[in-house]
Design goal:
Layout lengths: L1 H27 L25 E5 L2 E10 L4 E5 H7 L3 E5 L4 E6 L2 E6 L4 E4 L2 E4 L5 E3 L2 E5 H6 L3 E6 L2 E6 L12 E12 L6 E4 L7 E4 L5 E4 L4 E2 L9 E7 L9 E9 L9 E12 L5 E9 L7 E5 L5 E4 L15 E6 L9 E10 L8
Parallel strand pairs: 1-12, 15-19, 16-19, 22-25, 23-25
Antiparallel strand pairs: 1-2, 2-3, 3-10, 4-5, 5-6, 6-7, 7-8, 9-10, 11-12, 13-14, 13-18, 14-15, 16-17, 18-19, 20-21, 20-24, 21-22, 24-25
Length: 362
């Protein structure tokens, strides 16, 4: 009897322990939402959605990195090192000032994270958006690849195709073209990437890239050479309809026709504002122009003496009325390199391009 009672007590104890274990397990298995929490009012941390990655191809080779849209879709950002090295450039990174030097042959460019300004062979230019450090990599706008690395960037939904000049397909014989007329404000005399800038100074106007196939001629179709082009010439360009999205836009030139009746010699140029207008006893006007010289020898401040032979035109080379120029008018003046030693220097004006909209001569 005693043994039976002992066995019964042991069984009851084991049953109670099993019930407790089952109850505890059931409570632990309840959804967390049904359990009270002291931090119930704290908002959960939600990761921001990442920008959609865009695949990149360089001359048909798919890169491991990806591009992305930034600044509300206004800029396509590309991984600088991956793209530049695929194009044959060397990239050197400086952690001290978060800048990169990109070089190949005799070309060198520099960009800095967070700065729109960049340099190419000693000249400065600006990007539509500042380079960014994303996931430890420096990303630059596509405009830098086009303007500094001289590649063509085609952007479509979900992909970016980058093509070097050597890999670009030949243009068909009957291709769609456009014509643009303007005054030459800059000549880039580079064996690989020669170009002329018309219809304004940076970032305005249009950059015309030339090649060994570009034809140079006068209005009567007399043949000219690349070396005949001069600052201040009015040219009519037949060029491709395709243009880069950079500022200024760039396109390939097929034919450059010089419209000037007489070919000028070497000229200097200054882009700026007419600060003062003077008139001599013979009725000839002089303009004091303050701004920026277009070449190393050009003056930032210059007094331009007008004569009966001075051409005054708009950005397309069409004549405008000289009397319409007033104090404050923005102009680009082209003048003889012979100047007085006064401050500011005085020179004979050959052609003045009026950037402000003025009534044209009938």
């Amino acid at each position: 009897m005693t043994m039976m009672n002992t066995t019964l007590r042991t069984s009851l104890a084991m049953l109670a322990l099993s019930t407790a274990i089952v109850a505890s397990g059931a409570a632990a298995a309840e959804p967390a939402a049904s359990q009270p929490s002291a931090s119930a009012n704290i908002a959960p941390i939600v990761s921001s959605p990442q920008a959609s990655a865009i695949a990149i191809e360089v001359d048909g080779t798919l890169l491991p990195g990806a591009a992305y849209q930034a600044h509300g879709g206004e800029a396509t950002m590309l991984p600088l090192r991956a793209v530049a090295e695929q194009l044959g450039y060397t990239v050197k990174w400086s952690q001290a000032d978060r800048s990169a030097i990109i070089s190949k042959d005799d070309m060198s460019a520099a960009v800095t994270a967070g700065a729109k300004e960049y340099g190419v062979n000693g000249s400065s230019a600006s990007l539509p958006a500042a380079p960014e450090l994303t996931e430890g990599q420096l990303h630059v706008p596509s405009a830098f690849v086009e303007n500094a690395l001289h590649a063509t960037v085609a952007i479509s939904a979900g992909s970016v195709s980058i093509t070097t000049q050597a890999q670009q397909p030949e243009q068909p014989v009957h291709q769609q073209t456009a014509q643009t007329t303007g005054v030459i404000t800059a000549i880039q005399d580079d064996e690989k990437y020669a170009s002329v800038h018309i219809q304004g100074v940076w970032p305005d106007g249009l950059v015309l890239k030339v090649s060994e196939d570009t034809v140079y001629q006068r209005a009567d179709e007399t043949k000219l050479e690349w070396s005949d082009l001069r600052l201040g010439m009015t040219v009519k360009a037949e060029h491709s309809l395709a243009m880069t999205l950079s500022l200024p836009p760039q396109t390939g030139a097929y034919t450059l026709t010089v419209l000037d009746a007489e070919l000028p010699g070497e000229l200097l140029g200054t882009a700026g504002t007419v600060e003062e207008i003077r008139t001599d006893e013979q009725g000839h006007a002089s303009y004091l122009v303050k701004g920026q010289g277009l070449t190393n020898l050009s003056q930032n401040d210059i007094v331009l003496r007008l004569s009966d032979d001075t051409a005054i035109v708009d950005k397309e080379g069409k004549p405008v009325e000289p009397g319409s120029i007033e104090q404050g008018t923005k102009v680009i003046g082209f003048y003889q390199p012979v100047m007085t030693k006064s401050l500011p220097a005085i020179s004979q004006a050959v052609k003045i391009v009026v950037e402000t909209e003025l009534p044209q001569q009938p």
